Amino acid sequence: MLKAILFDVDGTMADTERDGHRVAFNLAFREAGLDWHWDVPTYGELLAVTGGKERIRFFIDKYAPQVPEVADLTDWIAGLHKAKTAHYLDLLRQGEIPLRPGVERLIAQARRAGMRLAITTTTTPENVTGLLKATLGDDSPEWFELIAAGDIVPAKKPAPDIYHYTLEQMNLSADETIALEDSANGVRSALAADVPVVVTINDYTAGDDFGGALAVHTHLGEADNPAETLAGPAPDNGVVDLDYLADLLAR
Ligand code: XBP
Ligand code: MG
User: Fold this and answer.
1) What pLDDT score does 21 carry?
2) Active site includes 8?
3) Which ligand number lies closest to the CA of residue 100?
4) Structural domain containing residue 216
5) In terms of domains, do 170 and 237 share one?
6) CATH number at residue 68
7) Do 227 and 101 form a contact (C-beta atoms < 8 A)?
8) Catalytic option among 10, 161, 182, 208
9) Starting at the edge strand that comes first in sequence, how are the strands of the sheet with 4-7 ordered?
């Protein structure tokens, strides 16, 4: 029986990557006097690595850009990433990043039905509360029983750690939950913890391998903007709702 919906954030709740995180990274690079710039295709490639700090380190290792001589590279990356988070929060506060179709509707329906809700993401915790407050109001972080985010677990997606942590904290078994994800890394993470997963794609992840997912849709759908189903059963009228998710789980 479906007891909880576990939301990924980046790419799933909102298209945060191209116009949010990427822009914030570039602002932080410029502020730090670095001549690095992550354009849209480059960022798509870097998204293979989850976690902003991990992504910066991967970029340094792969592209060997000029890095100032610093005593401790890990500390320096953490500082640069902190500046990036501040820029990202500014972008959220400016209202630049809306929720994807169907996200607000599904959350509202779940709350009315008493369905348990959690966030399961690799991004920094402040980024989650920032997005929720900017899009759903100041009290919306409290709608989620758990916000599992960032460095709370040692290994980020595609490792299963964040899903294991979520199940343990909520005292749920994997088959009582459904994860909503947008990327292959997210799907691999959920499946490695035996959590059934439904995918909504975006421009960066459309070509990913979603093998093992229960279904793949373009988005969660609204009555006037139905989702297209790319794999698995299609929801009635192109709208992913609680009945549809519960049915998927029962199959
Ligand atoms: C999200 C990420 C994050 C964000 C940046 O993955 O990979 O790294 O891009 O966030 P998912 P931070 O959607 O699978 O959780 O810079 O705060 O790490
Ligand atoms: Mg994601």
Assistant:
1) 97
2) yes
3) 2
4) 4-15+98-250
5) yes
6) 1.10.150.240
7) yes
8) 10
9) 146-148, 116-120, 4-7, 177-181, 197-200, 215-217, 229-231
